[in-house]
Amino acid sequence: MWRTIHVEKLRGETTIPVYVYSEELENMTVREFRRRLDRFGPREDYILIYRGIVLEDHKKLRDYGITHEYTVHRLDRLPGRGLMGRFLKEKHLQEATSTLKLLQVPFQDTSLHKDSSQIDIGFAAQVTLNQLKSSKNISERQRLEIRVDCKKLLIALLEKLLKKAPVHHTLVRSMQCLDPRRMAECKELCVSQMRRMLHILVGAKHVNEAMCDDILREFREFCDLAALQPKFREFDPKNTRVDTLLHETMGTKPSFSKVWDVVKILLVLSHGQASVERGFSINKELIVENQREMSLVAQRLIVDHVRSVGGITKVEITKELLLSAAGARQKYHGYLEDEKKKKERQAVDLKRKALTDDLDDLKKKRARMDTHTHTHTPDSSISTFQKPSR
What we know:
Layout: E1 2-9, E2 15-21, H1 22-27, H2 30-38, E3 46-50, E4 53-54, E5 70-76, H3 81-84, H4 90-94, H5 99-103, H6 123-134, H7 140-163, H8 170-174, H9 180-185, H10 187-203, H11 212-227, H12 230-233, H13 242-251, H14 257-269, H15 282-286, H16 293-309, H17 319-326, H18 328-375, H19 378-385
Parallel strand pairs: 1-5
Antiparallel strand pairs: 1-2, 3-4, 3-5
């Protein structure tokens, strides 16, 4: 028999009925319920709330008392919505049901803005303004001007944030295909996203276009394999790393070697210039006694820049570059001096720790000797050998 659980957006604009069998509902976890709910639309970052309590993925619905015809609330966690909500009208934000739509909201358009008196400038600022107004230190006009200035600041802040937001890039948005849960459930969508990423990587000369057909074939086969394994469908990013899982299932198999090379490139993007662990750390393979990680990072930055401008002959010799090169030796000596001082401090700390440990050992030995002496006094020994009186 079918059972229904209603999922309602927190603002109440949409209600989605989720149907499950009565036998499933008895032991269904919140994570399984999320997967069922994700079939009704694109996977977004959200939390589920019931009676003011945020539902935890590993718990079962019955742990919260959720059963047939109950309603669970869903709250989307979209970046930027909080700042936009301070000065934009609510109806325009409700239409932004995904991260991409939120980025496309024309928040500079004054026709979408709230009235100046309704702009949210924050609790503390609001209290201060009210105090200044009640004490007649500022006029109503000045009060509104402060609110308008706050709105200008919020708009400028949003412009800066969204300009640097990585989700603007097609490559970043398409990286959803590396989500193990998507691989197991949405094969064709993942293949389409992988194809888009390959177009970008080929254009950047990171991938040979002659290899793309083989890469897509291997990726399709890997998605088929993922659909058969529970650890992909039940993947929890809070407890398991994506690179760990993909290295174990993809990186160690020769049949997926070509797509694994592409996946390594994509996974390194989220780490910036940091070392990437779990089986494909290039830094770990290259670091030797006479070469430190800082040197490797610097070399990578130089190589990436040379590639981006199209070759060593096209590198622009600027004044900043010349000054940096002239001061390189001095910076290196400064680095060596800092390392020497660091080692000296470590040696002093180790010596102090060794002395402290020796002192603690002596105190413990003295305590044991005092205890032994107290339990074996001469009086007690004499009384032990006295004959009992008749």
